[in-house]
Write a structure and sequence with these properties.
This protein is largely without helices or strands and 64 residues long. It has one domain (9-64). It is built from 1 helix and 2 strands. It has one helix at 29-36, and strands spanning 50-51, 58-59. It has a two-stranded antiparallel sheet with strand order 1-2. The longest helix is centred in the middle third of the chain and has 8 residues, at 29-36. The radius of gyration is 15 Å and the shape is flat. It starts with 28 loop residues before the first helix and ends in a 5-residue tail after the last strand.
Length: 64
């Protein structure tokens, strides 16, 4: 991705495979939530995480 902004939104498309049911969601939100919670901030199984650009260390998202 070229360019960035501190508060800029990011849009990502999720496409189904040719044999996937078109009536089902393209991404399993329950699976994403389960992999992001209650694991002591273990990033090894997280589908999404934020990296501190000063330290290079992944960390949890925090609201301000």
């Amino acid at each position: 991705m070229e360019g960035w902004g501190t508060f800029a939104p990011i849009t990502v498309a999720f496409n189904r495979g040719p044999h996937d049911d078109p009536h089902q969601a393209a991404i399993d939100i329950d699976d994403v939530a389960a992999r992001m919670q209650k694991d002591g901030h273990d990033t090894s199984n997280d589908p999404v995480y934020v990296v501190n650009l000063k330290t290079g260390v992944p960390g949890p998202c925090r609201r301000r």
